Amino acid sequence: MAEITQTQTLPAPFIEALGKTYGEDLTSAIGGLKGLDVSKIYGPQYVAPQSALQEQAQQLASGLGAYQPYLQAAQAATGPQAYQQYMSPYQQDVINTTLSQYDIQAQKGLPALAAQAIGAGAYGGGREGVQRAEYQSQSDLNRALLQAQLQQQGYSQAQQLAANQYNQQLGLAGQAQGLQAQQISGLSALGQQQQAQRQAELEAQKQLEYQKIYQPLQTAQQFGSGVMGLISGYPQQTQQQIAPSPTALQTGLGTLATLAGIYKSFNPSPINILSDMRVKENISLIGKSPSGLNIYKFKYLNDNSYYQGVMAHEVPYASTLREDGLYTVDYSKVDVEFKKVN
After folding, report:
1. Mean pLDDT for all residues in the chain
2. Where does residue 317 rank: exposed (0-12), middle (13-18), buried (19+ CB within 10 A)?
3. What tens digit of pLDDT does each residue of 92-132 get?
4. Residue 84, pLDDT score
């Protein structure tokens, strides 16, 4: 009875062992990510709060009205009655003394009038009375003018002092506000530097936590890249198997299997498609599914065609580990269509 020879091309035993180790490492790394608590690498704990200097600057900013007393003092130096507090307490004494001296000098002029009347032979007459009245009237007018002049002088001096006080208080208010604003600006700048430094420290801590979590997966992927390189570059071994000629029953079963394969080629099932990233190359992200799954375009190793699908390690709930250590995906459990693309 004729014999059938079957030839199989297998990788070297040590490469096959490396591939198995890689599969175990990758499975373990992916399994470690299934229960990942993302709050360990994301969240408000990685946002730097305001520094103490920034808080101090805000407190000072809320108290910018500290210069208000200067404005109130300035307001007190204005208005129709403001001059009164700047009048000299000796002003009236000066006026009284000056007027008293004026009265003495005015009285000294009366004897001269009497002498003129005697010389004119009109002493005690109406003419002398008229002259005395005119003299007294002019004297009183001059006295009133002198008094008004003294009062006006005191008023002007008081007004000038009030204006000086007003300007001085406004200047102090401006200086106080300017100094406080400079202080707030300086504190804010230093506070921002401290906050930026703290933010940099938090970002470094966040990166460290991220690396701790993803390092096993990254290490497994790097190891897999080396294994794939060995598989593609190392000569493979050939094994031969000799089997007896098929019986009529075996031939019939083979025919049925062929027919099933033909049917499957025209009616492809989305169940358990090989989707392990270790057997793919030229991988690129081309979109997102409605549920947010990544959609990739890729080629299988030793296959020039491109396909669309997912990566098994990203959909563990739809993935199955085969006996050879590779993962398949049940596409009926994901909202991504597996298909051949250009």
Report:
1. 79
2. exposed
3. 888 899 999 999 988 887 777 777 777 776 666 677 677 77
4. 77
C-alpha torsion 20→26→30→31, nearest 10: 40
Contact 11, 237 (CB under 8 A): yes
DSSP string of 27-56? HHHHHHHHT--GGGTSSGGGS----HHHHH
Q: Residue 319's beta-bridge partner residues?
A: 329
Among left, alpha and beta (phi > 0; psi -120 to 50; other), residue 281 is: beta
Q: Cα separation of 250 and 186, whole Å?
A: 91
Say if residue 265's pLDDT is above 50: no
Could you tell me whether strands 339-341 and 306-309 are parallel, antiparallel, or unpaired per DSSP bridges?
Answer: antiparallel
Q: In the prediction, which pLDDT does 334 show? A: 95
Residue type at 239? Q
Domain definitions of the chain by residue range? 15-239, 256-342
| pTM check: above 0.85 | no
Burial of 200 (0-12, 13-18, 19+ CB in 10 A): exposed
Provide the residue count of the chain: 342
